[in-house]
C-alpha cells in the first residue's frame, strides 16, 4: 500500500469513531507512512479530541 492509501484507511477508521483502531493501524504502518505519519497522528488526535469536546457539550445540554 502506498502512503495515501494508508492515510485513507486511517481516515475511514476515524469516521467510524474507532480511534484506538486508527492509532493501532498508524503504529503498525508508521514506516510505510513515512512523512505522512505526523499528519495521520494529528488527524487522530484532533478527531479524538473534537469528539470528546462534542460529547461534553452534549452532556451540558442534556442531549
- What is the overall shape? elongated
End-to-end separation = 41 Å
Order of helices and strands: HHHH
Tally of separate helices: 4
The count of strands amounts to: 0
Percent helix, as a range, is: over 70%
C-alpha Rg, in Å?
A: 13 Å
Instruction: Indicate the structural class.
Output: mainly alpha
Biggest β-sheet strands, sense, barrel? none
Summed over residues and divided by their number, the pLDDT gives a mean of 87
Low-confidence residue ranges: none
Percent of sequence in beta strands: under 5%
Describe the protein's architecture and organization.
There is one protein chain. The chain has helices spanning 3-15, 19-28, 30-33, 36-60. By secondary structure, the chain is an all-alpha fold. It has four helices and no strands. Helix 1 (3-15) runs antiparallel to helix 2 (19-28), helix 1 (3-15) packs parallel to helix 4 and helix 2 (19-28) runs antiparallel to helix 4. Helix content is 83%, strand content 0%. The model has no long low-confidence stretch (mean pLDDT 87).
In short:
83% of the residues lie in helices and 0% in strands.
Question: What keywords describe this structure?
Answer:
mainly alpha, 63 residues
Reconstruct the topology from this structure:
Blueprint: H1 3-15, H2 19-28, H3 30-33, H4 36-60
Amino acid at each position: 500500500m502506498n502512503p495515501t492509501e494508508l492515510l485513507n484507511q486511517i481516515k475511514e477508521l476515524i469516521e467510524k469513531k474507532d480511534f484506538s483502531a486508527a492509532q493501532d493501524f498508524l503504529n503498525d504502518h508508521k514506516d510505510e507512512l513515512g512523512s505522512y505519519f505526523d499528519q495521520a497522528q494529528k488527524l487522530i488526535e484532533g478527531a479524538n479530541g473534537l469528539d470528546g469536546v462534542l460529547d461534553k457539550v452534549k452532556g451540558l445540554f442534556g442531549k
